[in-house]
Amino acid sequence: MKAVGIILAGGSGSRLYPVTKYISKHLLPVFDKPMIYYPIGVLKKIGIKKILLITTPKDQRNYRKVLKNGKEFKVNITYALQKKPAGIAEAFIIAKKFIRKSRVVLILGDNIFFGGNLFKILKRAKHMSESVIFLKKVSNPKRFGIAYLNKKKEIIKIIEKPKNPNSNLAVTGIYFYSSDVVNFAEKLVPSKRGELEITDINNTYLKSNRLKSFILNKNSFWRDAGTFESLLETSKLIKKYNIKI
């Protein structure tokens, strides 16, 4: 099944202020490479060569200087703008003409993945007809979209940043959808924080029994590298395990 990739590298980088006053967080180093290299590497490893990189208007010039058309990575990178932080799900509206009838994989530019059973199940998800999300146990579930499972390990609901979570399974920043995700995104109503929420997309698929999930095993690494602490921790682990993109 034909699939295309989207990397969302928008946002203001407020959690990494004041460093992000002068540079996009996705161009900050994670050990010895810019952060943005890692999501490109994930897409490449699962056989996705056509990539749309969505950036802010002020940062796109720097991305073009660093990545150009993707030839260095043996992929094809094109660019689009997210004019303001309006939510992850807005990426599908921005990418409507890019997606067309293809299956689409969205990965967040500040999410780092490697190891364990990761690439095996990502490749499997690329060829599935259902939408697919990936879960990982976390120690701070109030920061994430959290999935709740029944006794059969099936998702029954997803709550964005729950105040009193009784699940610790976070939805990680890589998502597989069919092309109709664009239609769902266009019908979304902004949340209280004024954003089109990816959790609402996932719950839409869940209601129609079209959402599958995989739990990443303990040897699979995932971090949202958008804070100083996670940026440092991730850099140390990439050095320790000599991770290559």
Q: How does CATH name the architecture? A: Alpha-Beta Complex
Given as residue ranges, the uncertain stretches (5+ residues, pLDDT < 50) are none
User: What sort of overall outline do the alpha carbons produce when their principal axes are compared?
Assistant: globular
Radius of gyration computed on alpha carbons:
17 Å
Largest sheet: 9 strands, mixed
Counting DSSP H or I runs of 4 or more residues, the number of helices is: 8
Task: State the name of the first-level CATH class.
Answer: Alpha Beta
In N-to-C order, the SSE pattern is EEEHEHEHHEEHEEEEHHEEH
Query: Please, what is the CATH homologous superfamily?
Result: Spore Coat Polysaccharide Biosynthesis Protein SpsA, Chain A
Give the helix/strand layout:
Elements: E1 3-9, E2 29-30, E3 33-34, H1 37-45, E4 50-55, H2 60-67, E5 76-81, H3 90-94, H4 96-99, E6 103-108, E7 111-114, H5 118-126, E8 131-137, E9 145-149, E10 155-160, E11 169-177, H6 181-186, H7 198-207, E12 211-215, E13 221-224, H8 228-241
Parallel strand pairs: 1-4, 1-6, 4-5, 8-12
Antiparallel strand pairs: 2-3, 6-11, 7-13, 8-11, 9-10, 9-11
Descriptive account of the structure:
The protein is α/β, with parallel strands linked by helices and 245 residues long. The protein has a single domain (3-241), classed as Spore Coat Polysaccharide Biosynthesis Protein SpsA, Chain A (Alpha-Beta Complex). It is built from 8 helices and 13 strands. The chain has helices at 37-45, 60-67, 90-94, 96-99, 118-126, 181-186, 198-207, 228-241, and strands at residues 3-9, 29-30, 33-34, 50-55, 76-81, 103-108, 111-114, 131-137, 145-149, 155-160, 169-177, 211-215, 221-224. The strands form 3 sheets. Strands 1, 4, 5, 6, 8, 9, 10, 11 and 12 form a 9-stranded mixed β-sheet that branches. Strands 2-3 form a two-stranded antiparallel ribbon. The two termini are 24 Å apart.
